[in-house]
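Journal club side-thread
Mid-discussion, someone asked how the predicted structure for our own chain would compare to the paper's figures. Pasting it here so we can look after the session.
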Amino acid sequence: MPVRILNQAQVTELLPMEECIGVMETVLRTLASGGAQLPLRAAIAVPGTGGGLFCWMPAQLSDPPALGLKLISVFPSNDGTPLDSHQGVVFLVDPGTGAPLAMMDASSITGIRTAAVSAVATRALAREDASDLAILGSGVQARSHLEAMLAVRKLRRVRVWSPSPERLAGFVRWAKQRLGVAAEAVQDPREAVLGADLICTTTASSNPVLLGEWVADGAHINAVGSSIPTARELDSAAVARTRMFVDRRESAVSEAGDYLIPLREGAITERHILGELGDVLLGKIPGRTGAGDITLFKSLGIAVEDLASAHHVLRKAEARGIGLVTELGGLRHTEAG
């Protein structure tokens, strides 16, 4: 069977941010409408890697029609090296026959779709006049989140903090050269956050980098850096002040340290998660109820987002003849006579 293979550069070319934002809004609506099967991700810890994980994330979607999985390794020790901390492939099969259709780079899909979902959340939950952005972190997600925030809000100020001065300087240069944005490098996270009405936490930190006392009334927070129960980017006071929404409730109550640790400490109750972002998009639940609300979108990243992104990339690649097409098994072979 013909299978199309797409590398990192090709996926990036075929999945521009603004298109991905539209794809993510559609898939979150599909999920909230019951049009998806989405088991919890499974992972194994890899000994001797400083917390490295190997994960598999299957899913099935009705809109767009897609079936497959993401295989992804998450190695925090790669930070500061030429290697991405997230590496792997997204594998699509024909939802009607099960025949393999495509394999493509997962690092680029993860980097783009995570920020695109934050853009959907920002458009749904942030104030219309939100324009002062703070980004905590300076890696792949920091860069993609700046691009995503520019797509949904007109920014007048951007402040960025990172624990790595070298990477922070590189981020500032990249923002100016690539996006024409004069990002301000600051010395500590508090300086970045004070007065900001948009906050994106994109770090690999296991301990809080955002404290509740710093967050201004009316702010919106996208928290994307932590995805395991024992790590968090927000302290309990920050989470307790928010109207909290998630990409998927089942994932959040199983995996999100930003929720589970405040819950364990008694700072919040199980009712603190108000719902999924898709429910807000469908009008099932209210998002922001007033200008002074602090809204929080806790993103873990879910396989339906990867599959919808890969489906979009594959359709464009087929139309434009991009990628390596090779044969894999799947045909039934019988002996003649």
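Post-session note: The domain at 128-298 is CATH 3.40.50.720 (Rossmann fold).
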